[in-house]
Amino acid sequence: MGATEAMDPDQSPSVRSVLPAAFFLGLTGWLGLAAVLLFTLPNIGPRWLFFFTGVLAITGSMLPVVAFLNRRFPSTPTPTPGVIVRQATWMGLYFPTLAWLQIGRVLTPALALLLAVGLILIEWLLRLREKSQWKP
Questions:
Q1: Which of 4, 12, 45, 78 is the most buried (most CB within 10 A)?
Q2: How many other β-carbons are positioned within 10 Å of the β-carbon of residue 19?
Q3: Secondary element (H or E) of residue 11
Q4: Is 60 within 8 Å of 28 (Cβ atoms)?
Q5: Distance CA 74, CA 29 (A)
Q6: Could you state, in chain order, the average pLDDT of each consecutive group of 10 residues for the chain (136 residues)?
Q7: Residue 48: which of 59, 38, 36, 31 has the closest Cα?
């Protein structure tokens, strides 16, 4: 899709349209995560910075994947760029949450699956709500 063409309202955003945000988030997140892991001690501040940069890194990495999947498997209503970012953010929150649970040694495969199902259910309910909105 060219820069002068308008986005088709019946199609989700293209992968190319989310690449700048994905690049910025991914680069910031992965460089920040590397800096936290290489140059800090595991005190309380760097630990929270680890989770924050983990969310940025995973969200940025998953943005093109989510955009591709929404483009490949269209749904009604068509996902907006905000929906794409929200779905990538769910994944960005999921993996640092697993790391946080692992620090406390409470992560089990069943708990990881339960968290994944819970996040999928929340997203499904949000999409169901969007579908039910009356548009004259």
A1: 12
A2: 14
A3: none
A4: yes
A5: 29
A6: 54 88 95 95 92 96 94 87 94 95 95 97 94 76
A7: 36
DSSP annotation string for 69-135: HHHHS--SSPPPHHHHHHHHHHHHHHHHHHHHHHHTT---HHHHHHHHHHHHHHHHHHHHHHHH---
∠ CA 92-93-99, nearest 5°, is 100
Structure-token pair, residue 17? 């349209």
- Residues 93 and 38: beta-carbon distance below 8 Å: no
CA distances from 73 to 23, 34, 47, 70 (A): 23, 34, 37, 5
To the nearest 10°, report the CA torsion of 69, 70, 75, 81: 170
Distances (CA, A) of 7 to 14, 24, 108, 122: 9, 22, 43, 28
Question: The whole model's pTM is what?
Answer: 0.85
31 three-state secondary structure: helix
